[in-house]
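User: Predict the complex.
Assistant: Input components as received:
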Amino acid sequence: QKEVEQDPGPLSVPEGAIVSLNCTYSNSAFQYFMWYRQYSRKGPELLMYTYSSGNKEDGRFTAQVDKSSKYISLFIRDSQPSDSATYLCAMSRHGSSNTGKLIFGQGTTLQVKP
Amino acid sequence: DGGITQSPKYLFRKEGQNVTLSCEQNLNHDAMYWYRQDPGQGLRLIYYSQIVNDFQKGDIAEGYSVSREKKESFPLTVTSAQKNPTAFYLCASSIQGADYGYTFGSGTRLTVV
């Protein structure tokens, strides 16, 4: 079983839709949670960062972490064609168990159609 | 501006050749990483280094080598022992522990011809 599971999609939605992207994980030691956005043939860029449980909002993007369910989500409101990209979740452990490496999901490819 | 630079953007390798991919960062990050990305397989860790003159193998190190002689630089050599080198290669850097995530370069696309 992989430490982090992410549905690879592809996910296709019409412009203006609300998009929900999700990852599940198995290791309760994870404390830092991130979402990266990767456009085709580019490097991933950090989109959202959350520590421990809770919500974080940034414009049209909301990241949620539910540590009791080992489940994280990224919501995109009023999706735009420019949101078409691959979205990767990532997480890291805290403290003495931290290996200094992020654990990535496989990435979900999103297409927003005009 | 601080950032991480990979070069070249595109690289072609003949069978049996070694090639070296460059990665330079001016973020003053201690840790650096190399990933390989293939369609449908996500990111796979090749090598990483948390301090100068030290590095560790990742999940798919066979056929690759690295060096970390300077904090700013972490070149990756794809050797002839790597039988399927065609892929998109990503370099990243972070502070120690990666608690705040990685900064990625723009990638190098390597193709065997």
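Residues 14 and 54 of chain B are 30 Å apart (CA to CA).
Let me know if you want any component modeled separately.
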